[in-house]
Q: What sequence folds into this?
């Protein structure tokens, strides 16, 4: 067996182990503490309160496509958060779902438990931030706020497209 080939493969393995251990040592404790604190906070918000908010204020676009996706992902996590859409009018359901799905990654930056299946994304996004010695808090806040703006735009556009498609279907049926 060629010794050079073995050394080259071990060299790449050592680099992988180095990166993995840096994730474990640097990002791991942050995620563990954040998961614990955030899980406690989410237990304080009751599902019935969120449903009541959706029924009461779901007619307001800003609430429907920013606050409701945030509070449902925060308190109910993914995938239970989509239940909130049941309390909205039928014409708003596709856009709410689009907004909630689109917010799964941005909320993970501040509240990792909200979409724990996507923690690999958070770790991947945090690694360059840590290596560049940037503030994790500023990154999380910026990512969160940009995510809110994006879901408002996506929800509004999806609502418009849904209305247009319903109109076209009604015209075709007549």
A:
């Amino acid at each position: 067996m060629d010794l050079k080939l073995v050394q080259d493969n071990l060299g790449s393995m050592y680099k992988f182990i180095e990166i993995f251990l840096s994730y474990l040592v640097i990002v791991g404790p942050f995620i563990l503490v954040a998961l614990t604190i955030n899980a406690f906070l989410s237990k304080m918000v009751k599902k019935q309160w969120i449903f009541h908010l959706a029924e009461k204020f779901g007619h307001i676009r800003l609430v429907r496509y920013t606050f409701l996706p945030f509070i449902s992902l925060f308190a109910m996590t993914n995938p239970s958060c989509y239940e909130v859409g049941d309390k909205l009018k039928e014409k708003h359901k596709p856009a709410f779902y689009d907004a909630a799905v689109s917010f799964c990654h941005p909320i993970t930056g501040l509240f990792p438990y909200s979409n724990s299946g996507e923690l690999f994304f958070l770790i991947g996004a945090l690694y360059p931030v840590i290596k560049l010695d940037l503030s994790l808090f500023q990154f999380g806040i910026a990512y969160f706020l940009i995510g809110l703006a994006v879901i408002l735009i996506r929800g509004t556009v999806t609502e418009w497209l849904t209305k247009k498609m319903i109109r076209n279907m009604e015209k075709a049926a007549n």
Summary: The two ends are 76 Å apart (CA to CA). The chain is about 75% helix and 0% strand. Residues 3-43 form the longest helix (41 residues). Helices lie at 3-43, 47-57, 61-76, 93-102, 104-108, 119-131, 136-173.
